Amino acid sequence: MNDQPELPIDHSSSNVPEVPSFGCIVYVSSTPKGRIKARVANLPGIEIEAASERDALTKIVKQFKNTIQDHIQAKSKIPWIDPPSSIVEGEQKRFLPTHL
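-> structure tokens emitted (100 positions)
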């Protein structure tokens, strides 16, 4: 048992700016040629094909971040797909918490 009182965390005096974070929902599958295909389910137009899942996810996160940053800089609404696109047979879901 912990008898130490909990200290409240007060971020109001911090000089560290908040870093926005977003959930990137990705569906991954294999192509007939053995490559990995990945697509973002909650933001339109982001699809990658790569040699491995790791490569595909690395590339897709970069593109996801760039897309979000472009919308933030343009002060335009982020075109979230809500609810996310449906998963199709053969795909597996990955959830990638992403910060800019």
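The longest strand covers residues 21-30.
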